[in-house]
Design a protein that fits this description.
Helicase, Ruva Protein, domain 3, globular, two-stranded antiparallel sheet, 331 residues, Rossmann fold, alpha/beta
Length: 331
């Protein structure tokens, strides 16, 4: 497809491109429709996503496939405990100029991409995480006192393993809050495993077709952000966030008992922005309660922190969010 001017994207064009993206990804990725939809919502919203699941579930393949389908500059960083900030951001190098003089030149690191796969992001040390945090929030990189802008579009799709704890550094709440969604990647069914085996254990290989480019992604983002939201829908998102705080008079009993800290205002932003993209993906240029509810789990599950009792009881934040959705909408 040829690039469209950013201002020219229309709803029908958005829907057509989005459907084609999902169809192309489905040619490579078996099942995982909710995971694929959540990742696409984050990309079209211009935000970051954290994918959590055990190894071997296709998280890396999904992200590579999205980069191919969207014709974006792709880079992968395998996070390890000895990874340094300069390994991500780049560094200044000295080159010999004319007459033997030394010239300092900036050598960009892999973070200078459109779609960055941060593989096993929780294996990096806090010092390296701070470099990632600047890029995710400011979309800039600071090296040797000089700031460099990252090219738009820019998003981080990160993965982490929920089981292995040795050699990992849990992501701080401030960084978790920068991810629009936290997406849980579930284990495939028997039929899905059979399909995976059919696709991957023979000689045939499937390559996704390119559907869009960076300019079109930016145009789709602009249309998404300009989607109108009625005041009662915005109020619903705000009441959901307030209800996650145990000290609030709107909190339900299970929240008061098991939650230590509720979701931040970024949680409300995630609900509204995610709902806007979800509405467009459904072919509507208005946001409904159902769109808020469709994105509530990935938008809030990493923003609600359980207290000691909640952790000891094995309470799942997904169950808390589901309970809140049942109660808050009726008020």
């Amino acid at each position: 497809m040829s690039a469209l001017p950013i201002a020219d994207m229309k709803l029908d064009e958005f829907s057509q491109i989005a459907r084609t993206i999902e169809n192309e990804v489905a040619r490579i990725i078996v099942g995982q429709q909710e995971v694929v939809r959540s990742a696409i919502i984050c990309i079209l919203a211009g935000r970051h996503a954290l994918l959590e699941g055990v190894p071997g579930l296709g998280k890396t393949m999904l992200i590579r496939t999205l980069a191919d389908v969207l014709e974006l500059k792709f880079a992968r960083i395998q996070f390890t405990p000895d990874l340094m900030p300069a390994d991500i951001t780049g560094t200044d190098i000295l080159e010999e100029g004319e007459h033997g003089s030394k010239i300092r030149r900036f050598q960009p690191g892999p973070i200078f991409a459109n779609l960055l796969l941060a593989d096993e992001i929780n294996r990096a040390t806090p010092k390296t995480q701070s470099a990632m945090l600047e890029a995710m929030q400011e979309k800039t990189v600071t090296v040797a006192g000089r700031r460099y802008d990252l090219e738009e579009p820019f998003f981080v799709l990160a993965t982490q393993n929920p089981l292995e704890m040795e050699g990992t550094y849990p992501l701080p709440e401030a960084q978790l809050d920068r991810f629009l969604f936290k997406v849980n990647v579930s284990f495939p069914s028997v039929n899905e495993i059979i399909t995976i085996l059919d696709r991957t254990t023979g000689t045939a290989s499937i390559s996704p077709n390119k559907v869009a480019n960076g300019q079109q992604v930016l145009a789709m983002r602009q249309l998404a952000l300009s989607t109108p939201v009625a005041s009662h829908v915005t109020e619903y998102a705000a009441r959901l966030i307030v209800a996650t705080h145990p000290e609030s008079d709107q909190a339900i009993d299970v929240v008061k008992k098991f939650v230590g800290v509720g979701a931040s205002p970024r949680g409300a932003q995630a609900l509204v922005i995610g709902a806007k993209v979800n509405a467009l993906l459904e072919g509507r240029y208005n946001v409904a309660f159902e769109d808020i509810e469709a994105v509530a789990l990935p938008a809030l599950r990493h923003r609600i922190l359980l207290n000691f009792e909640g952790q000891a009881e094995g309470i799942r934040t997904d169950d808390l969010v589901r309970d809140l959705l049942k109660v808050v909408r009726k008020k």
